[in-house]
């Protein structure tokens, strides 16, 4: 459970070779006490080519995969990094890979027990490196799946919805304004809604940008 010593992906290698790093965050301060017993509530993201990808909830049947600056996911407390391996994959190829994967991880399908951010990182890690994330990262979900009676029903149905904040583009000047309004309950999504989800935030602001899933 010790943080790995992470170097930049191109420091010693060619431009296409990169580290695959798991970044883990605390969802609750209680983790400070339970972490040492191999138990806690965590969020995780996969860092490749200098960007961290994660999976979060929203109310629409489109990509819930998002990008943030590494180890800076808003709403969480960074805890540790784990080097999973190295791959030789151009950034453009990785972008295509993550966009294709996004079609399997819609925001409205997020579930704390059966399909959460740690299921996403484990899946991506396995596809890229043939390795799974450490078992302690998603132990709560496995306990909930095997022994649902151990967890309150309200917790089993929880989705992590501090992500995203919505960015509204004003028609007058095309600038962005930040809105924290809860998205409406709907199973449909028009073009304006999709642009609010997919707009890329300014670098260094600690905000998220959702990945547009590949079209079939």
UniProtKB/TrEMBL annotation:
Top-level taxonomic group: Eukaryota
Pfam families: Peptidase_C97
Keyword Repeat recorded: no
UniProtKB keywords: Hydrolase, Protease
PROSITE patterns: PPPDE
PPPDE domain sequence ranges: 18-155
Any GO MF annotation of the entry: peptidase activity
InterPro entries: PPPDE_dom (IPR008580), PPPDE_sf (IPR042266)
Gene3D superfamilies, per database record: PPPDE domains (3.90.1720.30)
A biological process term (GO) from this entry: proteolysis
Disordered: annotated span: 169-194
Sequence similarity: Belongs to the DeSI family.
PANTHER family listed in its UniProt record: DESUMOYLATING ISOPEPTIDASE, IP06716P-RELATED
Protein name according to UniProt: Ethylene-responsive element-binding protein
Protein's organism: Citrus sinensis (Sweet orange)
């Amino acid at each position: 459970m010790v943080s790995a010593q992470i170097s930049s992906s191109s420091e010693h290698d060619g431009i296409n070779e990169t580290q695959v790093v798991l970044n883990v965050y605390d969802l609750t301060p209680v983790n400070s006490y339970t972490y040492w017993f191999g138990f806690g509530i965590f969020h995780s993201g996969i860092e490749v080519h200098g960007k961290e990808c994660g999976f979060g909830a929203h109310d629409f049947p489109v990509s819930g995969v998002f990008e943030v600056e590494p180890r800076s996911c808003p709403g969480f407390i960074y805890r540790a990094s784990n080097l999973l391996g190295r791959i030789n994959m151009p950034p453009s190829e990785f972008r295509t890979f993550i966009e294709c994967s996004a079609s399997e991880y819609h925001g409205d399908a997020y579930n704390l027990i059966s399909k959460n951010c740690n299921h996403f990182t484990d899946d991506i890690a396995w596809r890229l490196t043939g390795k799974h994330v450490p078992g302690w990262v998603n132990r709560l979900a496995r306990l909930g799946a095997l022994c649902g009676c151990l967890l309150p029903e309200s917790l089993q149905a929880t989705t992590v919805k501090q992500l995203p904040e919505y960015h509204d583009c004003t028609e007058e000047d095309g600038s962005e304004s930040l809105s924290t309004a809860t998205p409406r309950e709907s199973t449909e999504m028009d073009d304006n809604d999709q642009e609010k989800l997919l707009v890329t935030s300014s670098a260094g602001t600690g905000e998220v940008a959702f990945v547009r899933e590949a079209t079939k």
